[in-house]
TrEMBL record:
Lineage, top ranks: Bacteria, Bacillati, Actinomycetota, Actinomycetes, Propionibacteriales
Top-rank taxon, per record: Bacteria
Domain SIS: 145-285
Region ranges (Disordered): 296-317
Annotated InterPro entries: Homeodomain-like_sf, HTH_RpiR, RpiR-like, RpiR-like_SIS, SIS_dom, SIS_dom_sf, WH-like_DNA-bd_sf
Family annotation (Gene3D superfamilies): Glucose-6-phosphate isomerase like protein, domain 1, Winged helix-like DNA-binding domain superfamily/Winged helix DNA-binding domain
Domain (HTH rpiR-type) ranges: 19-95
Full protein name: MurR/RpiR family transcriptional regulator
Cross-referenced Pfam families: HTH_6 (PF01418), SIS (PF01380)
PROSITE patterns, per database record: HTH_RPIR, SIS
Keyword annotations: DNA-binding, Transcription, Transcription regulation
Amino acid sequence: MAIVILTSERAAQTREQSPAVADRIRALHSDMPAALARVADYLLLHPQAPLTLSIGELAEQAGTSAASVTRFCRMVGYAGYVEMRVGIATDVGRSTARESWATEIGREFGPDDTPELLLARLIGSHTKSLREATSAIDLEVMSEVSGRIARSGQVDVYGVGGSAMLAAELQGRLYRIGVPAFAWADAHLGLVSAAIQGPGTVAIGISTTGRTEETIEMLAEAGRAGAFTVAITNNPGSPLDELADRSIVTSVYEQALQPDDLSAKHGQLLVLDLLYLLVAQEDFDRSSDKLAASALAVASHRRPRRTPGRGGGQDHA
């Protein structure tokens, strides 16, 4: 039976068309002579063996010769054993990259999806996240927490990684309406602030998974110091949820959470918006005075609105 020996140019084309070494082995297996078929059988059972075995060691494991291994490499589209090793390493890297993508970003978004498909799936996941957050909100808990925040002598908000953005957003809004709030993304600084909390203060930990160790540590330290502790998380029953005096759960559905799941952040932003408004209502006079003062302070840094005029959009006094 003739053995197909590919030129380097044709081998490169074959690699582009069939990127996985194992797929090519399966496709050509039935056409292989017995000596080459033994190599194929061994590699299908041990696909990464060439990464650690020499050509002689692989031949011994497969019950054949080094020359047969070389002929096998050429039949499946490689110039030699070294080139097949590189192909297997590439396959392993590609598989690892896709697994990392699925873990970090999510399986519903493919690396080759069109912009239109990505947009459609994003709209669906973000709408679902907002719907879930709405159904999970406990208004009694929200009212209690907002009242404590409005009366608090100090509010610490802890969040690291992606949740640091949410912590900073809540801190900025509370501070603007007169609540002495601080956001901590650095665990060392956050632990220092947590340790000097006390009765009459509020500490809030934000974590999508509820398993972020630094956030758990900071909230626990604030609780030991006497602060009223609040968890904001998508994961009921998580360590952060169980640690806090009160929990604001932003999702009631089990789901595979990814660190970069922006739709989960939208559900949390909805909760933070509602919490901010409830705190502002607790002391309307203070909130309105502080908002007016802060708006006046930054007014000179905002360009005036452009109004259409007869001169083609000129600014008018």
